[in-house]
UniProtKB/TrEMBL annotation:
Keyword Transcription regulation among record annotations: no
Lineage: unclassified sequences, metagenomes, ecological metagenomes
A GO biological process held by the record: carbohydrate metabolic process
Name of the protein: Transaldolase
Signal sequence coordinates: none
Keywords in alphabetical order: Schiff base
InterPro entries assigned: Aldolase_TIM, TAL/FSA, TSA/FSA_arc/bac
Source organism of this protein record: marine sediment metagenome
An annotated Gene Ontology molecular function: aldehyde-lyase activity
Amino acid sequence: PGPVSTEVLSQDASGMIDEAREVARWADNIVVKIPANLEGVEATSVLSKEGVKVNFTLCFSLNQTLLGVAAGASFVSPFVGRLDDIGEDGMKVVEDIVKFLRFYQLPTQVIAASIRHPQHCMVAAKAGAHIATVPYKVLLQMIQHPLTDIGVKRFMDDWSKVMKD
């Protein structure tokens, strides 16, 4: 299976490190979510040197991403919907992060988080986000299209006519 993220609850670097070490032992595919703040940068630096995969989460700017990547984060998670909520362009932040990582050929992957609607998914994919955390209701919205429903109904109507003949 792919990566599975778990989140630390501690607010200080020492506590984050202790928690992360513990949960990282659970399975090889564990990725520990560490917040994009000063304590999180310190914890990310220590953990990444120990081989613990870190998701630098609650990222809201390219500056935070720069620090997380420099500390060794395997993943960064910009929160698109929450940025949109305060009038900023969350998808622009994702685009900027992806461009930065590509330009410097860095291995850190982008997880587009706080996805609110199908448009977020399309733009995140076009921008080059590696992963998106998509709520189930958004997945359902992504698969629905009125022309598909109309097409299925027409096929069924046509089939019914053929069967009557």
